[in-house]
Amino acid sequence: MDYSQLETQLTSQLFLTHRPVAVASLAHAPAGLEKFEGVQPSGCSYWALASGGGAFYTVAADHYNCSIGSHTHNMPLPEDRAHELGDTLGFMTSIGYLRMEEVPSIPQWPETPGVVVYAPLGDTPVDPDVVLFWGPPGKVMLLQEAALRAGVAAQLNTLGRPTCMVVPAALTHGVMASTGCIGNRVYTGMDDSELYVAVPGRDLQRIADETATIASANATLQEYHEDRKRQLTPA
To answer: Rounded CA gap, 14 and 154, in Å?
Structure first.
C-alpha cells in the first residue's frame, strides 16, 4: 500500500491541517527505526509528536507515566508503580469524572505490545493497525461517511474519555469517532474545535476509495442546501 499517496489524497480531500498518524503494535522494533528517547506524560503525547513529523517506536516503560493509557494499551505497570492506576481512578471517581463500574468496559489492546510504532501516515515503516485523524467535525465527518459507504463503520456510540481507548476500539469494531478528553487535549494541544476519527489500517484503502465520492457529494449537497435556505428563509 502506498501510504504516502494515501496521506496526500486524504489530506487534500479532507482539507486536514494535521498529518494523520499511523500506530502499530509489534513484537519487535522494525529495522532502522529509532527508539523514542526522552519522557512524555502520556501515550497520546506520542500522537502529537508523530503528527509533527517524527517516526519512532516506544516500549512499555515509555507509557508508564500515564496509568490510564498503560491500561488501554494492555501494558501492566511494574509492581512498584501498580498502585498508580488505582490512585488515578480513585481521584477521577472522587471528583465525579467517571464511575468505577465503567472501568471494565474500557477497551484494551488485545495483546501487550513489544513495541508501539508511531509515524506520520506517509512515512510509516510498517502497516499500521490504526490510523488517527483529527480536525474540525465538518471535515473528519467525511471519514465517517466514507466508512458508512464502505461498510466498515463501527456500530458503537462516539467515544469520549479516555481518548486513548479509541485505538483498541477501532481495531476491534471498525472506524470510530472520539470527542477527545481533557487530558488528551492538554497533552497533545488539540484545539477544542477538533475531534478524532480512528481508522483500522485494514480498512484504510477502502475508506480512501470512497472519500472522493463523499467529498464531492458533500460539495454538491452544500450548494443544494444553501439554495434551499435562500429560497425558504424569509427575508
So the answer is: 20
pLDDT for 211 beyond 80: yes
Sheet holding 195-200, edge to edge: 56-58, 115-120, 21-26, 130-135, 195-200, 176-178
Helix (H) or strand (E) holding 209: helix 204-232
Tens digits of per-residue pLDDT, 129-155? 999 999 999 888 899 899 999 999 887
> Side chain identity at 52, as an amino acid letter?
G
Kindly state the DSSP code that residue 101 receives in the 8-state scheme: G
pLDDT band at 229 (very low <50, low <70, confident <90, very high): very high
- Letter string b/e over residues 24-48, b meaning 16 or more CB atoms within 10 A of that residue's CB: bbeeebeeebeebeeebebbbbbbb
User: What are the domain boundaries of the chain?
Assistant: 3-232
Q: Is pTM beyond 0.90 here?
A: yes
When computed from its CA atoms, the radius of gyration of the chain, rounded to whole angstroms, is 19
